[in-house]
C-alpha cells in the first residue's frame, strides 16, 4: 500500500538502510556547490560523518547542536570536491528543506527503525 511506489519487503528495507540519530557539531557555508547547501559535521556517538545538506532555510548557528535523522550507509559522494558521507533527511516546506529530528533528545548514534 505504498503511496507512490510499490510495496517492498520490510525485512529487506531494514537490511539495506541504516538510519541513525546524529548531532550537528559544525556548519560551514558551501559556495562551490551548484545547489544551496551547507557542509555539516554530524556526530553519531563514536563517529563523526560529513554531509552536504540543503538546510539553508536555517541560520548556521540555529543548526548547531540539533539532532537529525541521517542515512549512514550510502557510501561517500563527492559534491564539488567535498566528500559527503551521510544523507541528512528532510522534507520540503514552504521556505525550504525542514530536517527530520526525534521528538525528544536521544543518544547520538541511536538506530532508527
UniProtKB/TrEMBL annotation:
Give coiled-coil spans as residue ranges.
Answer: none
- Where on the tree of life does the source sit, at the highest rank? Archaea
Residue ranges of domain TRNA-binding in the record: 13-113
Q: Could you tell me the keywords of this UniProt record?
A: RNA-binding, tRNA-binding
Record keyword Thylakoid present: no
- SUPFAM superfamilies (UniProt xref): Nucleic acid-binding proteins (SSF50249)
Q: Which GO molecular-function terms appear in the entry? A: tRNA binding
Name the record gives this protein: Protein secretion chaperonin CsaA
